[in-house]
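Hey team,

Filing this mostly as a record. A colleague (T.K.) asked me to run one chain through the structure pipeline before their review meeting, and I want the input and output archived in the tracker in case anyone asks later how it was produced. No errors, nothing strange. Just documentation.

Input sequence:
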Amino acid sequence: MIKVAEMAHQLLLENTKEYHFAVDMTAGRGQDTLFLAQHFKEVLAFDIQDDAIASTKQLLFDYHQSNVVLRQEDHSQFDFRSVPLMDAVIYNLGYLPKGDKLIRTEAKSTITSLEHLLPYVKPLGTVVLTLYPKENETEAREVLRFCQKLKSADYDVIKWSVVNKELAPYILQILKLKKEGS
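Output structure:
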């Protein structure tokens, strides 16, 4: 059985050209943040929930990772001009595992954050999003629709999915293309 979180990590490593700066847009319990901290020089991680920030902070402490800045704020409100260009970005959409299922990511804020951050992803940088249509079919559909409309001259978007399981989680991978002369 394919584990989408592991596949998302593999896609980040295989398709990222440099390992300087990465962003976890949804820190959650800290697994993606820890992964990034173990592979990138600097990491920025967001979550809106106290419990998520505390869990992530403890996991990073347990694994002796000190190269992460945690921000308790809505990722859609962040000004990405204030940080280095990003080599890699990861989203794991939905709700906090073992948390309140009513507090969850929504299509509008996810798409707004993508609009804000994509100009600040390095050429040949990678963004991966794990979506859960069984949990929030509307969010999955709207984020997919947004990604399908990205300019093909600027981005390749790949959908990684298990096709014989209805509403199975899937990954959208956005690869920023290198511009002529850059």
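Quick notes for T.K.: The CA atoms of residues 123 and 142 lie 25 Å apart. The radius of gyration is 15 Å.
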